[in-house]
Amino acid sequence: MIVTPDQVCKKDILIIGDKIREVNDNILPREIFHGCKIIDASGKFVIPGIIDAHTHYFMKSSSNQITADDFYSGSISAAFGGVTTFIDYAEQQRGHTIKEAFANRQKEAKGKAVVDYSLHQSVCSLYPNLKKDLEELKTEGVNSLKLFTTYKEDGSMLDKESWLDLLRMSRDLKLLITVHAEDDEMIDQNKTKYKEKGELPPYFHTQLRPPEIEYEAIKKVGNMAKSLDMPIYIVHLSSEKGYKALKEIRKSRGKIFAETAPHYLLLTEDLLKGKDAQKYFMTPPLRKKEDNLALWRAIENNDIEVIASDHCSYTIEQKLSSSNCLNILSGIPGSETLLPLVYSYGVRRGYFDIKRMVNLLSTNPAKIFGLYPEKGSLKVGTDADLVIFDPEKEIIISDSMQHTAAGYTPFDGFKVKGYPIATILRGKVIVNENRFYGEQGGGKFLKGKESVLY
Predict the structure, then answer these.
(1) DSSP SS3 for 13
(2) DSSP H or E stretch at residue 95
(3) What is the CATH number of domain 47-368?
(4) Which end of the chain lies in a sparser environment, N or C, as judged by fewer CB atoms within 10 Å?
(5) Stated pTM of the model
(6) What Å distances lie between residue 374 and 52, 132, 263, 383, CA to CA?
(7) What range(s) does the Amidohydrolase-related domain occupy (predicted)?
(8) Is-contact 354 3, C-beta < 8 A?
(9) Burial class (CB in 10 A: 0-12, 13-18, 19+), 275
(10) CA–CA gap between residue 286 and residue 292 (Å, rounded)
């Protein structure tokens, strides 16, 4: 059964080279091509390759630690989860241009990835030729920027006085602004409040960065974007209050869109009180069960467009190297578990159907980030990126079965029913029955076109 956002139906798919050449009933390739290989997907779903719109491979932390996964190991892990395209970040550094950041990131990725990839560009400081550089990067295939409203201490945050200028430039060039939405001033106030307590254990992450800071940041940037009549996209929406801000901006006719991640749907902040709490430490922090449920409702109500992993993996040793929440390395692995978790806990529990799942994990990110229809579809003439998905395969997710260099998953012990058994990238089977057949450097950089949100 092939699955698209529009239909679930029994069809054959003919692939020639790296493209889908026909989608029809009862294609008989042996009568057309001598030696044509047939893959029997009876009883399975065939869906477009997953697009993980939010990853951080080979990323340097503020303490100069490098993530466990580089573009090679991270993309292998992703491929085992049915991901055929990921979108990572080129991060501007203070005193450097975005063109330098983009060129450096391309060098780091070149010849490494086993699946296709694209890049968002973060902006942490404005400079005289920025608009010209943005225009040039757009011709290079960058169609989305990232604005941090926090992380002032490590230089990632763009000064609040510059937000409006960046938004204006982005609107003029039709570049999509994506936002890490946490109010830095409120975080600083909370740090001052708890300073006298000395070393803060992991759970205090939730006290320093409560849902209110997400609400405030979304409202501030959302209202700025509304004043300019331009779209913005909120990354890793984590809370009911954040969702409330989203709805308020939309109610006042703001063009605001959002993604969330499986950990904000399935894990709770209680994990930050337990053993090895650092393994569950990311930013924004985990929230309460009520927040999980609110985000499921948001997806159910079509108020969230994308589910992505925010894969940012460190080894257990790296994670446990500090117990002070101000110094714990932030981030978890997630690309490999994205699809099975969303299917098992979203589709099987009735929050949405499998067609909507394809939208959330593939078609919507492809359209939003300018990769459609080559990616995110099963249209004739497009890249043959497919996942063969067994809806009856039952697995207990474990650390040992993961392919990430982190060596663990925060979803260890989760039961799933429904699992990818084969991943096809541009007509080539790169994963089949838990064996890898791809090659280092087999993925290519994708130039994004203009976002459909403009």
Answers:
(1) strand
(2) none
(3) 3.20.20.140
(4) C
(5) 0.97
(6) 15, 28, 29, 5
(7) 45-429
(8) yes
(9) exposed
(10) 9
